[in-house]
Amino acid sequence: MKKAVIFDLDGTLSDTIHSIKYCGDRAVAPFGIGPFTEKQYCYFIGDGAANLVKRALIAGGDTELTHYEEAFKLYKEVFRENCMYKVAPYEGIRELLASLQEKGLKMAVCSNKPHAETINVVETLFGKECFDVLQGQEEGMAIKPSPEGVFRILEKLSLKPEDILYLGDTSTDMKTGKSAGAFTVGALWGFRDRAELEENHADAVIAHPLELLQFLE
What we know:
Layout: E1 4-7, E2 14-15, H1 17-28, H2 38-44, H3 49-59, H4 68-82, E3 88-89, H5 93-102, E4 106-114, H6 115-126, E5 133-137, H7 148-157, E6 164-168, H8 171-180, E7 183-187, H9 194-199, E8 204-206
Helix pairs in contact: 1-4, 3-4
């Protein structure tokens, strides 16, 4: 019997692609780059804000990352003010969270989004009491696919890897969950497709949040 579920945030719990595109486009626009489509941003994201900005710059022709420092600084400034721009939970997520609470499972978030913004998004969408642990990107902590964030959560919950399900929507998430030793589930409603999730060794792939419940036993 599983005791907890650890969720990725962007593309898993919350549909944040509008805010990411809005902030990304504003960060690179001063250098004559962009705008990019939401589909392009689906592949820019997943490995932290720094890599998002680098990928956008490279896609726009700045292959030497000449403007990286300026663009990344601007991205962080814009994102702090606009991290909730058109952000909403995916269909079925609230129902899944309610079901998990009824079953007495612990719930946590592990995100490459900066820690302060992770807290902002989660608490704005779901309140302050929904999740037991929130773990965003912090100074000195390796980003996913390192399992360091998952291990921090496990320590706080006094649980072992075999006690949890890890749910995410990208290859980064599958690598994170597998590296942590967790049962790892891929979410098809997020930013990537089934092929990517299966190629990165998802233990299961689901098309709707409530399908997660079948893997709790």
